[in-house]
Amino acid sequence: MSTTLRKLQLNILIIGASSGIGRECAHVFSSEGHSVICSSRDENELGNLASDLKIRYNCQAYAVSIDLAQPSCISNFVEEIYAILHKLDCVIVTAGTMPPDGVDYSDQNALLNTTMTNYVGIATLLNDVSKRMTEVNAGTIVCLSSVAGDRGRQSNFIYGATKSALSTYLQGLRMKLNRHNIQVITILPGYVD
User: Fold this and answer.
1) Comparing C-alpha atoms, which of 71, 87, 74, 97 is closest to residue 37?
2) What are the residue ranges of helices labelled H in the chain?
3) Which of 42, 74, 109, 118 could covalently link to 18 via disulfide, CB atoms 3.0 to 4.6 Å apart?
4) Which residues sit opposite 14 in a β-bridge?
């Protein structure tokens, strides 16, 4: 007698889904039949992406915008995510920002936007989501940081500092959540097109 194992369908939240690695993750997981919520700042791009995924892969794909530089909105965002999928198996964070070339390091707006987006917003989001994951003792968090956080560099030390903070946060979160069967994976890519 042969036994056929049914493929596990996961509920996946992708932060930073409107471009680059996040967009590619949305395509890969949707093509495998998983339910995805695509999130980023760009509402129009998210709507187009979710529509494309539904048509292309006949899957459940949703678009919910979030601006990580506005941490006060994150609690409502997480409530909305859980209202749609009721449970998250995996959160993938690819979002991030870097001040444009030529912006002086003393530009306070660039400093705040980079810090809020790359560290404070992500940590706020993951604190909320991981708390919910501990209630079911299951989940995976995958977060892109950067090799730029390994040491200060003259050209992008503000960006590097936010990634260093994020990597340290993820190390502690990994240890905190291990006993709850929650995996925290930090990915440190170098330069990416």
Assistant:
1) 87
2) 20-31, 43-57, 74-85, 108-115, 121-136, 157-177
3) 42
4) 38, 92
Element holding 35 (H helix, E strand): strand 35-39
Identify the bridge partners of residue 37 per DSSP, sorted by sequence position.
Answer: 13, 62
Closest listed residue to residue 50, CA positions, set 41, 37, 40, 65: 37
- pLDDT tens series, the chain, 193 aa: 344 445 789 999 999 999 899 999 999 999 999 999 999 999 999 999 999 999 999 999 999 999 999 999 999 999 999 999 999 999 999 999 887 777 777 889 988 998 999 999 999 999 999 999 999 999 999 999 986 556 767 667 888 888 999 999 999 999 999 999 999 999 988 777 6
Q: How many residues does the chain have?
A: 193
Contacts of 78 (CB under 8 A, 6+ apart): 125, 128, 129, 132
Residue holding tokens 């260093």? 164
| Element of type H or E holding 39 | strand 35-39
Contact criterion met (CB below 8 Å) for 79 and 56: no
Taking a C-beta distance cutoff of 8 angstroms, is the pair 145, 123 a contact? Answer: no
Spatial CA neighbour of 83 closest among 37, 127, 114, 125: 37
Contact 93, 37 (CB under 8 A): no
Structure tokens at 166: 């994020």
Residue 98, CB-side half-sphere exposure with 13 Å CA sphere: 16
